[in-house]
Every structure is written in C-alpha cells, then in structure tokens.
Design a protein that fits this description.
This is Pyridoxamine 5'-phosphate oxidase family protein. The protein has 164 residues and is of the alpha+beta class. Helix content is 24%, strand content 44%. A hairpin with a 4-residue loop joins strand 4 and strand 5.
C-alpha cells in the first residue's frame, strides 16, 4: 500500500468499516472479459477470517462467471465526505475502504439460508427467517476471503454530499 499511514490494521477497525458498508462491488472474469457488479451483502467473521455473502438471480452472467471461474476480487467503501480548503489543491475527500480477493462459491440448502439471513441482518439489523420457496427463488454466493486490506482517510472537518 503506497500510503501506509492510511492503512487500517486493527481488526476491530476493519470490522467497523465492514459494518458501515452496505454495498460490495464484486469483480470476476468470464469469456466476455472483466465484469464488476455492486451487491448488497452480509458477512460472518470468526475472529480470524471474513466470509461475505451476496444474493443474485438464479441465472445470468454473474452466476455463469462464478460457476466457471471462482476467483473474484471485491471492494467496499464508506465514510465519504468532501474536505474543503482555501486552495484548489488543498481539497480532499474522506473515505474508508476495503479491497480483497477470494473464492466465490454458489451455495445451496442450509448454507443458502444462512447466507440470506446474514445478508438481511447486515442490511437491516433485524433477524429474518426464510421459507423453502423464498430460498429456491434466488442464488446465494459465499466469498471466502483469501486476501484483504483496509484503508481510511479521515478528517474532522468535511462536508457530506448534499442531494436535492
């Protein structure tokens, strides 16, 4: 990492970034080339290793790509904010981000239910149960993380984007 002063190494801080992020960008490759898609996600952490869980339609380019090549990369980011300055080149932007790579696995059965439950817990903070019909209607993907790094650029003074 070029800006080593921005590297986040404490696992509690990395977990806090994951907790705040709600969208994971999943990159994969198929015969058409590179492909990246934003996905809502959930996760598990066993004290040493993250596993991320996403859902998808049962068919499509993403599912075909994973079935043929399990190697994936991912990115998530949050804590966005513009930092003002007196001079143009003094402006900056705050963020926290995580990037990594791993292996994507298409799930079924109880693992699929677990994935959907973790996804909803992360997105809503609530516990949900899924019946067999709901589970059968979607695909679920587990990303076994093999490499992960976190980075943050934080400032006390920033402007949150305004939407009108």
């Amino acid at each position: 990492m070029r800006r080593s002063e921005r590297e986040v190494k404490e696992i509690s801080e990395i977990k806090a970034i994951v907790d705040e992020c709600k969208v994971l960008h999943l990159a994969m490759q198929d015969e058409e080339g590179l492909y990246i898609v934003p996905l809502n996600f959930g996760y598990s952490f066993d004290g040493d290793k993250f596993e991320f869980y996403c859902h998808s339609a049962r068919k499509g380019r993403k599912i075909d790509a994973i079935a043929n090549n399990a190697a994936v990369a991912f990115e998530m980011d949050c804590e966005h904010g513009l930092v003002e300055a007196d001079k143009t080149c003094g402006y900056s932007y705050t963020f926290a981000s995580i990037i990594g790579s791993g292996k994507a696995i298409l799930l079924d059965g109880e693992e699929k239910k677990k994935a959907l439950t973790l996804l909803m817990k992360h997105q809503t903070g609530k516990d949900f149960e899924f019946n067999d019909k709901q589970v059968a209607a979607v695909s679920a993907i587990k990303i076994e993380v093999e490499d992960l790094s976190a980075k943050a650029h934080r400032s006390q003074i920033y402007l949150r984007p305004q939407f009108t």
